[in-house]
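User: I'm preparing a small set of examples for a lab meeting where we compare how different chains pack in three dimensions. I only have the primary sequence for this one, and I'd like the structure in token form so I can line it up with the others. Please keep the answer compact; I'll paste it straight into my notes.
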Amino acid sequence: MSQFINDTQTLVTDAIDGILETSGGALTRLDGYPHIKVVCRADWDKSRVALISGGGSGHEPAHAGFVGAGMLTAAVCGEVFASPSVDAVLAGILAVTGDAGCLLIVKNYTGDRLNYGLAAERARAFGLRVEMVVVDDDIALPHLPQPRGVAGTLFVHKIAGALAEDGADLDTVTQAAERTIASMASIGMSLDTCTVPGSRKEDRIAAGKAELGLGIHGEAGVQQVDFVDARNAMDMVLDKLSDRISEGGHVAILNNLGGTTPLEMAVLAHELAQSDKARNISHIVGPAPLMTSLDMHGFSVSVLPVDSANLSLLAAQVGVSAWPGLSAVAPVQTRPLPDGLSPIQPIASANDKTRAVISEACEILLGAQEALNALDAKSGDGDTGSTLATAARALQGALDRMPLADHTQLFRALSTELSQTMGGSSGVILAIFFGATGDACANGKSTPKALLAGLERIGQVGGASLGDRTMIDALEPALRALPDGIAAAAAAARSGADATAAMGTAKAGRASYVPEDNLIGHNDPGAEAVARLFEGLAKA
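Assistant: Understood. Below is the structure token output for the 540-residue chain.
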């Protein structure tokens, strides 16, 4: 698998320098490459308690991304998924610790505990006050004697960091960190494992499955489950946390494990906010990538009971761009549409034949969704089938309020419906097409001639014409053949659609941005949709 790296040997140092070079001077590092990789606050004066965390790289933005005012003083970075050395941790402690002392925040992995623990002992031998807390928030394996430290670590960074920034002493900061660790819990779910640079990816999770409770280094989870959808996934995660959030107010971290799109994370946030199991979650951090596992396609939820004290600490401002802040979970607020955007509703009327034709057309488009998406992926963004299927479902739901007995009003109603429910350029084009067709019907043209008037109008507005490798290459011949019957129209549409496979250059639409080699041999998806529609109607 190709990745945007230069060399696995310099991956971590290249990444650290990239973080520093774009920090606006807020961060610096110790001059110890390649073995000592410590990121520090550039403004640190050792006057307050220092907070140090870190571990293996690959969890970005943790931990270097959380170095800044109000959170970490320094982050000690190891290689990918490998604990930093004792000398690296000791270098970090010596660099930032003054008379106020230092707190080490360590995730519960053997390497981290050993290396940070020994470094702390050596630092104490230098006369420094050093305390260490171990984060063990993962509840995936409840009977494990040493639970793993995962994304709940960020709660500790934030609460301890806010106290330290305000000048609290080492004992106060340490006790707050310990209370936070004792009361929080985390669990994650993923659809895939992660890709470690330079290593072959482990394909452990089969298609159609998700893994519940896997670790942030790709360790196997507690179980593999059938993947249904985002709602079901969030429900399973919240179910595992239910005993921890059954009473009182809580804050949640909704963490992107690295490879989940922001769109997916927003859906997961919606499911969390809507779930009855999350009714006691009053505030949220995220959704955001906070403690990732390289490119893992998953998410995790961490929960912590809140009171006025720790809520204010979590809400305190920080000088760290990777921290998304704390937000209240609240119902969706809506505002009415502006005047003029609410369409005049047509007067519904019945016509069994027209209803049957529209219903059949919708079923044809729904059945072609996957094939059209696959075809569009060769020359566009792979959504033609989905866009048309969305329109088909909307039309199915609107049939009862359509003026089916009045073609003039029906075409206008179709235009309105598609302009509201069908996205992309296709929605606009078809809305214009049906609107112009309705206007032509109102001016006394027959339905076949009115449809051609609609076709002419979309050519004027959209700029496409026959031979430009668009849906018009199938739609125009079909409409011109329609007076000879639906079978003739279907044959003409098929011939026009197939001809687009030989057109190496698209002169309109998204395919016009695509190289010729990607187009040759593949029908235009819009033209293919038209052909399938007419063919299906001819068979009905």
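A couple of notes for your slides: The chain has a mean pLDDT of 92. The radius of gyration is 30 Å.

User: Perfect, thanks.
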